[in-house]
């Protein structure tokens, strides 16, 4: 999985006043959990753009001024309700021998006979939660739609999961091929024509 480096500096004081001062200076207060104790640091808001405003999944290298480097994944992010600026980010430190849970984007591959026949693809889940060791986290999950006829659904149980497991119920729908209005109208028109032909 691709990694993004975020440079920051450790925070000594974590009260409301210092947090507000950080935000006023264009910095985001952050916490890393998963180590011996929570680590508080701050980084420029611009440093998060490649991590937050992307459909891809990434691990993060947190590179602090004192020389500390940690591998982590983003666990939670809070945005300002009005301005959409980032208020706070929680990270979880990665350990090579400890499994982590992460949301991974779904990538649709293949040609569906149902779509070729006029159906419409609906991606129900754009991301899926998986659990694995950090080294086994995939960049994306392939959803092969080659077998989907019109009206068919692709379930999470039909996806390949080599070194990770899905954290979803077996009946979770990943995507489906729906009958389009045009295809439905064509079918209705054909049925109507057949009826009228039978009357004659």
Automatic annotation (TrEMBL):
Residues 6-91 form the Large ribosomal subunit protein bL25 L25 domain. Keywords: Ribonucleoprotein, Ribosomal protein, RNA-binding, rRNA-binding. One of its GO terms (molecular function) is structural constituent of ribosome. The keyword RNA-binding applies. One of its GO terms (cellular component) is cytosolic large ribosomal subunit. The keyword RNA-binding applies. One of its GO terms (biological process) is translation. Residues 99-179 form the Large ribosomal subunit protein bL25 beta domain. InterPro entries: Rbsml_bL25/Gln-tRNA_synth_N (IPR020056), Ribosomal_bL25/Gln-tRNA_synth (IPR011035), Ribosomal_bL25_b-dom (IPR020057), Ribosomal_bL25_C (IPR037121), Ribosomal_bL25_long (IPR001021), Ribosomal_L25_dom (IPR029751), Ribosomal_uL5_bac-type (IPR020930). It holds the Pfam family Ribosomal_L25p. This is one of the proteins that binds to the 5S RNA in the ribosome where it forms part of the central protuberance. HAMAP family: Ribosomal_bL25_CTC. PANTHER family: RIBOSOMAL PROTEIN L25/GLN-TRNA SYNTHETASE, ANTI-CODON-BINDING DOMAIN-CONTAINING PROTEIN, RIBOSOMAL PROTEIN L25_GLN-TRNA SYNTHETASE, ANTI-CODON-BINDING DOMAIN-CONTAINING PROTEIN. Part of the 50S ribosomal subunit; part of the 5S rRNA/L5/L18/L25 subcomplex. Contacts the 5S rRNA. Binds to the 5S rRNA independently of L5 and L18. Belongs to the bacterial ribosomal protein bL25 family. CTC subfamily. This is Large ribosomal subunit protein bL25. It comes from Zhouia amylolytica AD3.
């Amino acid at each position: 999985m691709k990694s993004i480096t975020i440079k920051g500096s450790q925070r000594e004081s974590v009260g409301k006043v210092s947090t507000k001062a950080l935000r006023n200076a264009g910095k985001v207060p952050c916490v890393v959990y998963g180590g011996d104790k929570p680590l508080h640091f701050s980084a420029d808001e611009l440093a998060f753009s490649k991590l937050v405003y992307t459909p891809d999944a990434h691990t993060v290298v947190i590179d602090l001024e004192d020389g500390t480097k940690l591998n982590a994944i983003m666990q939670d992010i809070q945005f300002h309700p009005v301005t959409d600026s980032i208020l706070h980010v929680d990270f979880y430190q990665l350990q090579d021998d400890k499994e982590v849970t992460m949301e991974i984007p779904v990538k649709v591959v293949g040609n569906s006979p149902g779509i070729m026949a006029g159906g419409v693809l609906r991606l129900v889940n754009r991301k899926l939660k998986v659990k694995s060791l950090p080294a086994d986290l995939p960049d994306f999950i392939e959803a092969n739609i080659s077998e989907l006829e019109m009206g068919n659904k692709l379930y999470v149980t039909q996806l390949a999961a080599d070194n990770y497991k899905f954290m979803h119920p077996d009946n979770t729908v990943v995507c489906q091929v729906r009958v389009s209005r045009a295809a439905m109208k064509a079918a209705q028109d054909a049925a109507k024509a057949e009826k009228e032909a039978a009357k004659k």
